[in-house]
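If your schedule permits, I should be very grateful for your opinion on a structural question. Kindly check, if you would, that the fold set down in the tokens agrees with what the sequence suggests. Thank you for your consideration; the sequence and its tokens are set out here:
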Amino acid sequence: MSRELLIGKNYEGFIPKSKKEYNVFIDLILRKADEICVTIKPSLDSIAEFEESMWGELADSIITTEYAQAATDNPGESSFLVYLKKDYKTIEFFKARKNIFDYSECDKITGITLEDPAFIKDNIIFCYTLTHESICEIEESIYKELMTKFF
């Protein structure tokens, strides 16, 4: 069963240019989010594969999972989406990243990578990324709040 999420209004692109900018960005985004969705590549046969991977520490934070067609998927391909609650494990995970596109690590045994984090509040996606395309979009109101922290 696919979740029905809404898209926010009017997005602005933002790419943190330094670790310091990323820290300010991710602090604000995580304060706003109540859950995070990540795409697992390659698609999993079961959640046990995720639990046994290098990303397994996030397994206790899983709210739900689903298969869905992503905009970047080839026809007939589906992505495995994992929805994570915002808890100390997910907060620490995102704060440990170097930037919002820092998902190049691949589990050597399972081949699993995490990609395309999307941040959700009240079933509205207010910030989403496309890892390989280096795209990060933030809902305009949150973008404006972020800019007040830099200027």
